[in-house]
Design goal:
CATH architecture of the largest domain: Orthogonal Bundle
CATH superfamily of the largest domain: MetI-like
Protein name: Multiple sugar transport system permease protein
Number of domains: 2
Largest sheet: none
CATH class of the largest domain: Mainly Alpha
Structural class: mainly alpha
Radius of gyration: 27 Å
CATH topology of the largest domain: MetI-like fold
Pfam families: BPD_transp_1
Distance between the termini: 59 Å
GO cellular component, one term: plasma membrane
Shape: globular
InterPro entries: MetI-like (IPR000515), MetI-like_sf (IPR035906)
Membrane topology: Multi-pass membrane protein
Strand content: under 5%
């Protein structure tokens, strides 16, 4: 093989490598866009179905709307025994109580596990971690009996009060790991300045926990807003229904279901979730990225 042939072969390889380096980002982004489209297709189909007549929803699998029916939203808003506003306000009340309860109780429990020394600390921390693996179906019956004897059935108390008692071990563990990353020298400096345990927690630790608190608030908001099982168990009066339970009322097992109205209200129920994620995405990513297993 002559020198000219070798040089031409190397030049062709370099040219091909340069071309692939330029094309590679485009190929990667194209593949990611295709995967995102596949994952978003059910949501897009639901939005399109909310604008279709009921008899065309399952007959037309495509995304083109031939007969636009905006009145599905008006009909769906008033289709149940109460206006859909009532169910949105009920969900907002449950979500607000759950978010505040988790932020207050879980942050205090996490501070105790991360900074304080008490008898049986490691044992109780292990018990707390084990409770993460305990399914809700195991405890729902004794909880229902307890809340029934307390007269809390058909109220928001069974959905909110447990959040105020630091029952979500996942968020406690998340905050414990975050607090362990805060230098203890800050605690010692606050103690020298005259702060006690409570003052150190409120004035030093808590302001530095904003990413972890924001992550807890966002996850609590999404999980509580989408919770169906617990709300179905404890809420029996239609006036007390939350959004997930109200959406179930659109599906009638004995008569024709109002699919157009149900999809329209499903789209409405997704709006708070999208807003919460978009507005809190920066804090969510920062909170997860700065919370690791140490």
């Amino acid at each position: 093989m002559t020198t000219e042939t070798i040089r031409s072969t190397l030049a062709a390889r370099r040219s091909g490598a340069i071309t692939w380096v330029r094309i590679r980002p485009f190929v990667i982004h194209l593949a990611l866009a295709a995967a995102a489209l596949v994952m978003l297709y059910p949501v897009i189909w639901m939005v399109v179905s909310s604008l279709r007549p009921g008899n065309e929803i399952f007959r037309e699998p495509g995304l083109l709307v031939k007969d636009l029916r905006i009145e599905n939203y008006r009909v769906g808003w008033n289709a149940l025994t109460e206006p859909f506003t009532r169910y949105l306000l009920n969900s907002a009340a449950v979500v607000l109580g759950s978010v505040v309860g988790n932020l207050v109780s879980c942050s205090m429990a996490a501070y105790a596990f991360a900074r304080l020394e008490f008898v049986g600390k490691k044992f109780w921390f292990a018990i707390m971690l084990l409770s993460i693996m305990l399914p809700i179906h195991v405890v729902i019956v004794p909880q229902y009996i307890l809340f029934s004897q307390a007269g809390w059935i058909n109220t928001f108390l069974p959905l909110v009060i447990p959040k105020m008692l630091a029952t979500d071990a996942f968020f406690i563990f998340l905050m414990v790991q975050f607090i362990r990353g805060i230098p203890r020298e800050l605690d010692e400096a606050a103690r020298i300045d005259g702060c006690g345990r409570a003052g150190t927690f409120l004035r030093v630790i808590l302001p530095l926990m904003v990413p972890a608190l924001a992550t807890t608030a966002i996850f609590t908001f999404i999980w509580t807003w989408n919770d169906f099982f617990s709300q179905l168990i404890y809420l029996t009066d239609p006036k007390m229904y939350t959004v997930p339970v109200a959406l179930r009322s659109f599906v009638d097992a004995t008569a024709e279901s109002s699919w157009g109205s149900m999809f329209a209200m499903s789209v409405v129920s997704l709006v708070p979730i999208f807003l919460a994620f978009l507005l809190g995405q920066r804090f969510l990513i920062k909170g997860i990225a700065t919370t690791g297993i140490k």
